[in-house]
């Protein structure tokens, strides 16, 4: 009997409210008194980079150090059982899962949180806004991209990142039989429009991604199977069932 190489699947995660249980920006904003809180961007396409840097500036003025803020975010509890879910798929032999993050958060927070939860080795790549600690002990964030995507912020088009990543992997001979995208937010909608019929979108139940798909599924021809989840246990159970039959959508 001849055995071929293991099948490969790409598993993509968002970060805020997908891996971590809350939105990290809201958590930091709520450290500020009401009169010092900057106004939220009115639209997702206005982006969060300037907003987040303003929050960092206010927190620094109030005496918060970058070390304190990083420890705070690293300690945010994960979405229930999501850590076990990631470790389970990372250790899978056939199919083999390549796991990445595409997020509008920033690299410092994501890497700190992964390290705190012993997940760093599980992720092949992280695509997020670059960030660094400045000499005055503050944190600054820069845009990952400069994009005109009509469905996302100016600093990040998740569809573009996914397309380029798939092309790069194909260039070294890696073709994924399925792409699985686990996310929650409105700006996670854009990449679903290029996913194939055999791919899977796992939209967190009750969040903006679910609502956007419900409103636009027929009009925009969202092709992949859509599953709704609340925990890592849900994800594992749903995927084990769905991967045997990917022609049925729950939305």
From TrEMBL:
Residues at which Mg(2+) binds: 14, 16, 184
Keyword presence, Iron: no
Entry's Gene Ontology molecular function annotations: metal ion binding; phosphatase activity
Gene3D superfamilies cross-referenced by the UniProt entry: HAD superfamily/HAD-like
Keywords: Hydrolase, Magnesium, Metal-binding
Cofactor requirement: Mg(2+)
Pfam families: Put_Phosphatase
NCBIfam families found in the cross-reference section: DKMTPPase-SF (TIGR01489), HAD-SF-IB (TIGR01488)
Family, as annotated: Belongs to the HAD-like hydrolase superfamily. PHOSPHO family.
Protein name: Putative phosphatase phospho2
Organism: Ceratitis capitata (Mediterranean fruit fly)
Taxonomy of the source species: Eukaryota, Metazoa, Ecdysozoa, Arthropoda, Hexapoda
Gene: PHOP2
């Amino acid at each position: 009997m001849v055995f071929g190489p293991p099948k490969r699947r790409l598993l993509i995660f968002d970060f805020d409210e997908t891996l971590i249980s809350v939105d990290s920006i809201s958590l930091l904003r709520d450290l500020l008194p009401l009169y010092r809180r900057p106004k939220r961007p009115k639209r997702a396409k206005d982006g969060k980079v300037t907003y987040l840097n303003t929050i960092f500036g206010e927190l620094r003025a109030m005496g918060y150090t970058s070390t304190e803020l990083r420890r705070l975010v690293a300690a945010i509890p994960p979405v229930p059982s999501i850590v076990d879910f990631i470790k389970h798929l990372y250790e899978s032999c056939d199919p083999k899962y390549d796991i990445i993050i595409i997020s509008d958060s920033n690299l410092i927070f994501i890497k700190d949180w992964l390290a705190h939860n012993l997940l760093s080795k599980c992720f092949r790549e992280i695509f997020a806004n670059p960030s660094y600690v400045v000499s005055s002990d503050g944190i600054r964030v820069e845009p990952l991209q400069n994009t005109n995507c009509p469905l996302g912020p100016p600093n990040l088009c998740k569809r573009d990142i996914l397309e380029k990543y798939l092309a790069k992997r194909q260039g070294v001979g890696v073709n994924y039989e399925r792409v699985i995208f686990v996310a929650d937010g409105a700006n996670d909608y854009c990449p679903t429009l290029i996913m194939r019929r055999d791919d899977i979108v796992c939209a967190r139940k009750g969040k903006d991604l679910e609502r956007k798909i419900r409103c636009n599924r027929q009009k925009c021809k969202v092709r992949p199977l859509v599953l709704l989840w609340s925990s890592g246990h849900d994800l594992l159970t749903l995927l084990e069932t769905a991967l045997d039959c990917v022609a049925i959508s729950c939305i």
